[in-house]
Design a protein that fits this description.
Blueprint lengths: L1 H9 L2 E6 L5 H6 L9 E6 L3 H6 L5 H7 L4 H18 L7 E8 L13 E8 L2 E8 L4 H24 L1
Parallel strand pairs: 1-2, 1-3
Antiparallel strand pairs: 3-4, 4-5
Length: about 160
């Protein structure tokens, strides 16, 4: 994985907050030998209570926007970044937070169709989200979300380091 070499080269650490992907993103990052050089860890935050009580997402935000939103994806990414930087005694500038939230399907959740996905990324450059409309089976949506999250991470590295 070229990505792992970039992470190590630039001294970047990764922390994840995964709802939709339930650990698949961390698992994919850990497939590379030497992943411990950049993967700090992650939180599977499938339930809203975990998003609020473990990762500090404002419950009013979830109530107003739902957990399936750009704003929650950003909050998850920012909060997991800050939490892992603090707990692992890393400079927050060296930690990137990645989050996933959405609907894998097959059924919609509330007003959100299956395949509605938000990826959050937080780095020294700031925090943002990527909104996706994916198609396929539940497994395909989750796998595509992981691939898109890794793409977003590569884009962020490119934006910062050129």
């Amino acid at each position: 994985m070229i990505l792992s070499k970039q992470l190590i080269q630039h001294g970047i650490y990764i922390a994840t907050a995964e709802s939709l992907t339930a650990g698949l993103l961390s698992s994919e990052l850990a497939t590379e030998p030497g992943a411990s050089a950049f993967l700090l860890g992650g939180v599977t935050c499938y339930q809203d209570e975990v998003k609020v009580n473990v990762l500090g997402v404002d419950p009013h935000l979830i109530q107003a926007q739902s957990a399936i939103s750009s704003e929650v994806a950003i909050s998850l990414a920012r909060n997991v970044r800050d939490k892992f930087a603090l707990e692992c005694v890393k400079s927050v500038e060296s930690v990137f937070g990645l989050s996933t939230t959405g609907v894998a399907g097959p059924d919609p959740v509330g007003n959100h169709a299956a395949g509605t996905v938000y990826i959050g990324i937080s780095s020294a450059r700031g925090s943002r989200s990527v909104a996706l409309k994916l198609h396929g089976t539940r497994s395909e949506v989750r796998a595509a979300t992981v691939a898109k999250a890794l793409d977003a991470l590569e884009d962020e590295i490119q934006a910062i380091f050129g």
